[in-house]
Every structure is written in structure tokens, then in C-alpha cells.
């Protein structure tokens, strides 16, 4: 597959969308010094090419009753036709967030979330039975996740958004309410329908969403603002197929030695690197998972060598997985009774 090349303006547009996927064509255009019409044209072109696969929302799942997120790393030993059927069942399960094939010590990666320990056991039992789990897997719990640098796609371009319009796309509300809250939040069926719609398309115009749900656009707007302030909604992001730009995705799994200060230094060192997209704290065989992107596996191996040289006594164990095919990826399950 031939890689798609982006020009400087395309890369700046992706950067702006990663800041807030609801930014209007006008806001993005002002920030990158491009007309509204040309900005819209470039975004639609990237959608047509499959670089931009869509737009989604992210929520703090415990506030909507999804209290724990789990990850399974499996070495699946099944013939191809049986493996395809297993993957199809995993994709269709309502509680799986991610189903992907990998290369490394494990060849299948699953993320799911659950309301409580009974629910988690039900989902795990389903996976255990269809995947015939024995001693061929590792099970982790996600304790905390955060977006990291995410600047790898800029490559040699040095760009920082001037952020000329904080009030567009709820950005001013997001900036005032960055901290995650722990208190339970009361949501009704209309709130769930809004979140479900934003998961599918976070750029959907409020008028269109209001018409779809039979509510006034102002009512939808106030509900979204309330959910941001309450810590339920915390970002709108684009869904980007980085593989079409020549970037492969890797999981770097680490178990660290040392005190909390030393561990924080390592996490910050990795998170600030341009290759790092996501930094997760996990509980299990490893205590950190980083998602990295690079056009070359050698660059990833060089980065790992750099980490080992910088912190020679602090890396107790590391494993590297290469993402080969994503079959399912959603930010949260469908919510409510719908």
C-alpha cells in the first residue's frame, strides 16, 4: 500500500483536530492561516483518502457506571478460519472496546470495560471460552490513561497552535474543567443518546443532533456543557489511520523499579517523546503501557535503547508488540437502554 503524503497545512489541520475535533473550519483556518473553504476542502480530502476515518468523543467511564477497564494479551493458537470466527465474536460483543491482532509474544489484544466484578467475570468467561485461555495470556487492569506528546505525524515540522478561538467547540469549558472527578453523576436517557451520537461523530452539528433526538439545539448544547463540567466528557478527537501515512503502531509494556519519583521521571521521559501517543498506568505483569508510532521498527528499538541507557537500573522488564490489524476500536460502549 502506497503511503499518503500530507503537506504542511494538512499536518497542521490534524494537529488542530487533535486539540479539539469539533473546531470549526473557520477556527482551524484562522489558526493555520488558511481560508475556511480551503480548510474544509483539505479535511474532506483526507476523509476521502481514508486518513480521517471519523471523529469520536472520550468520556471518564467510571462516571457512567463502567468502573474498570481490562486488557488481555493473548497468544491465540487456532487455525485461521477458527481465529476469524473468534475475532468476529469478540468484535460483536457490546463490552469490547478494542480487538486487534499483534506480533510479538502475543498475537491478539483485547480491551473491555465492566460495571462491576460480576460483569467483568461474565465478559472474561466469554473471552476465556471462545479463545480457550489456559496459560497463554496476560491480564491487566487500566489504572490511569493520558494522551502524551502525539506529535510524531508532524515529523520535522515545528508547530504549536496559536489557539485564537477558545470559545469554539466547547474548548473554553474543557480548559476550565481538566480534572477528573470521582463523584457519581446522574445522567438520563437523553444524555446517553447524546454521548452515543458523539461517539459515532463528535463533529455532528448541534442542530442535526437536536433534530435526531427530538430536542432543541440549545438544550443539547447545555447538556454537553454540563457533562464537560461534571467530568463525564473530556475530549473530542479525530480517528486517524496513521498506517496510511506510513506509521506503524507499537505497544511498549514496562515493569519499573525504583520509587515513585524515579518512575515518574521515566514516564515523563517517554511521554514527552514525539513517538508516544498514549501513556497508561496498568496493574498486572507490567505497570505501564505506552502506545508508540513510527515509520521504522529500528527507530522504536533505538528509542528503547535510549530509555535503557538513561535509566539502566529502573527497567525491570519490557515487552514490545507491533499492531498489525485493528478489527474494532471504540472509545466507550454504547450507553443506556438503546
Strand order of the largest sheet: 2-4-3-10-7-9-8-5
| Rg | 20 Å
CATH superfamily of the domain at 186-229: Winged helix-like DNA-binding domain superfamily/Winged helix DNA-binding domain
Can you summarize the main beta sheet? 8 strands, antiparallel, barrel
Distance N to C terminus: 39 Å
Average of per-residue pLDDT values: 92
How is the secondary structure organized here?
Elements: H1 8-19, H2 25-32, H3 36-48, E1 52-59, E2 68-74, H4 80-92, E3 96-103, E4 108-114, H5 117-131, E5 137-147, H6 171-176, H7 189-200, H8 206-213, H9 217-229, E6 233-240, E7 248-256, H10 260-271, E8 276-283, E9 288-294, H11 297-310, E10 315-329
Antiparallel strand pairs: 1-6, 2-4, 2-5, 3-4, 3-10, 5-8, 7-9, 7-10, 8-9
Give a nutshell description of this structure.
With about 350 residues, the chain is an alpha+beta fold. It has helices at about 10-20, 25-30, 35-50, 80-90, 115-130, 170-175, 190-200, 205-215, 215-230, 260-270, 295-310; strands at about 50-60, 70-75, 95-105, 110-115, 135-145, 235-240, 250-255, 275-285, 290-295, 315-330.
Amino acid at each position: 500500500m502506497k503511503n499518503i503524503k500530507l503537506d504542511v497545512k494538512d499536518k497542521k489541520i490534524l494537529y488542530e483536530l487533535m486539540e479539539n475535533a469539533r473546531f470549526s473550519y473557520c477556527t482551524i483556518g484562522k489558526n493555520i492561516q488558511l481560508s475556511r473553504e480551503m480548510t474544509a476542502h483539505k479535511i474532506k480530502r483526507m476523509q476521502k483518502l481514508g486518513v480521517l476515518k471519523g471523529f469520536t468523543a472520550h468520556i471518564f467511564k467510571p462516571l457512567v457506571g463502567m468502573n474498570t477497564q481490562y486488557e488481555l494479551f493473548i497468544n491465540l493458537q487456532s487455525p485461521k478460519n477458527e481465529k476469524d470466527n473468534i475475532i468476529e465474536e469478540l468484535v460483536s460483543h457490546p463490552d469490547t472496546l478494542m480487538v486487534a491482532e499483534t506480533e510479538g509474544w502475543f498475537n491478539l489484544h483485547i480491551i473491555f470495560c465492566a460495571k462491576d466484578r460480576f460483569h467483568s467475570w461474565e465478559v472474561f468467561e466469554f473471552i476465556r471460552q471462545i479463545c480457550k485461555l489456559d496459560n497463554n495470556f496476560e491480564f491487566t487492569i487500566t489504572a490511569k490513561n493520558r494522551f502524551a506528546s502525539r506529535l510524531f505525524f508532524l515529523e520535522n515540522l515545528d508547530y504549536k497552535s496559536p489557539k485564537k478561538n477558545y470559545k469554539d467547540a466547547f474548548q473554553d469549558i474543557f480548559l476550565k474543567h481538566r480534572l477528573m472527578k470521582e463523584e457519581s453523576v446522574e445522567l438520563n436517557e437523553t444524555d446517553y443518546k447524546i454521548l452515543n451520537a458523539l461517539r459515532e461523530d463528535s463533529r455532528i452539528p448541534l442542530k442535526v443532533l437536536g433534530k435526531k433526538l427530538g430536542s432543541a439545539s440549545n438544550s443539547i448544547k447545555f447538556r454537553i456543557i454540563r457533562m464537560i463540567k461534571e467530568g463525564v466528557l473530556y475530549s473530542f478527537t479525530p480517528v486517524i489511520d496513521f498506517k496510511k501515512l506510513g506509521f506503524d503502531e507499537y505497544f511498549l509494556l514496562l515493569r519499573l523499579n525504583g520509587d515513585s519519583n524515579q518512575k515518574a521521571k521515566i514516564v515523563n521521559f517517554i511521554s514527552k517523546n514525539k513517538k508516544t501517543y498514549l501513556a497508561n498506568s496498568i496493574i498486572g505483569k507490567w505497570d505501564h503501557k505506552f502506545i508508540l508510532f513510527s515509520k521504522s521498527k529500528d527507530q522504536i528499538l533505538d528509542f528503547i535503547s535510549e530509555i535503557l541507557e538513561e535509566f539502566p537500573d529502573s527497567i525491570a522488564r519490557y515487552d514490545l508488540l507491533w499492531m498489525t490489524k485493528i478489527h474494532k476500536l471504540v472509545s466507550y460502549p454504547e450507553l443506556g437502554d438503546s
